[in-house]
Amino acid sequence: MPRGPDWENSATKPVLKLLAEHDLALSATGIYYNLDQALERAPSQATVTRALKGLREVGLVNQPHGSLYQITEKGRKYLAGDLDTSDLGEDR
To answer: DSSP secondary-structure letter at 90?
Structure first.
C-alpha cells in the first residue's frame, strides 16, 4: 500500500469532512469528541491533534480564533478531489 504525504494520517479526512459538513470552527478536543461519537473506529485524540497540525501546515485548515480550527477553501478542494497533493508540500 503506498504511503501518503507526511502530513496525512488516519484522522485527516474524517477531520476535514466533519469541519466541511457542519461548517464549524471547533477545538481539537471538540473535533475528537464529535468523531468519537460519530465513527465506529474513531482516531485517537493524539492522532486528531497530529492531523490538525499537518492540515494547518499545508493550508487545509486555519485557526480563525485561538484554539479553534476551520476548513479552508483549499481544504474543501482537497476533499472534493480538486487539488493535486503535490501542491501541498508532499515532497518536503
So the answer is: T
